[in-house]
Amino acid sequence: MRKASYCLTSLLTLIVFANYDGIDSCSKISEYCIYNILYKYVCDDIQPSERTLQRFIKKTRPIINELNNKVNEIVYKSGKTHYKYVAVDRTIIKAKNSNFNVLKKKDIQTLINILENNYSLDKINEKSKNLSKSSIKFLLNEKLSDEEKLNQLYFAKKELKESKQTSMRLNDPESNGC
């Protein structure tokens, strides 16, 4: 058995750091170890080849997964996130998250007024003339109680104010105030 040419701690640190940085390509990680100052610092200036990284990841996958799970658990328990689920590998799930399924900032206050004041159907029809289709769909969603809708709207209003965005996807896990 031959001796490892790189410090295992440095390799693990490098892989975890790259994972959190959204880099999952061994060739890209290898390249970053040569040219990126931050990666050089994080991995003690080692320059592993793409193949070395591939072999290391294959052998240590359970350790890497366990480490990611522990980090998720710590972040959630510390209150640093309000989500039920935390993805640290930058996975993007696009299911039902089209650009036509959004709450617009300008519609949120109107929706809040409708729900808080228990408007009659005529008043709702009058108020909803200027609402987007997705906002009307949100308002008519029978799966959510009015209280749940209001909680989501207040959360969306706060998040949009802080982020300075103009809309929030309805199916975005960040938009439901979990």
Description:
The model is unreliable at 89-97 and 173-178 (pLDDT under 50). With 178 residues, this protein is mainly α. A two-stranded antiparallel sheet has the order 1-2. The protein folds into two domains: 8-77, no CATH class; 102-176, no CATH class. It has eight helices and two strands; from the N terminus they run ααααβααααβ. The termini are far apart.
> Could you give the count of β-strands?
2
In round numbers, the mean pLDDT is: 77
Ends: how far apart? 51 Å
What structural category arises from helix and sheet content? mainly alpha
Poorly predicted segments: 89-97, 173-178
Note the total helix count. 8
Query: H/E order of the elements?
Result: HHHHEHHHHE
Largest sheet: 2 strands, antiparallel
| Spatial strand arrangement across the major sheet | 1-2
Shape: elongated
Strand content: under 5%
- Number of folding domains? 2
- Gyration radius (Cα, Å) is 23 Å
- How much helix, percentage-wise, in residues? 55-70%
Question: How would you summarize what this structure contains?
Answer:
The protein is built from eight helices and two strands, in the order ααααβααααβ. The chain has 178 residues and is mainly α. It has two domains: 8-77, no CATH class; 102-176, no CATH class.
Tags for this model:
disordered C terminus; 2 domains
Topology of this structure?
Elements: H1 8-20, H2 26-35, H3 37-42, H4 50-77, E1 102-104, H5 105-116, H6 121-127, H7 133-140, H8 146-163, E2 167-169
Helix pairs in contact: 1-4, 2-4, 5-8
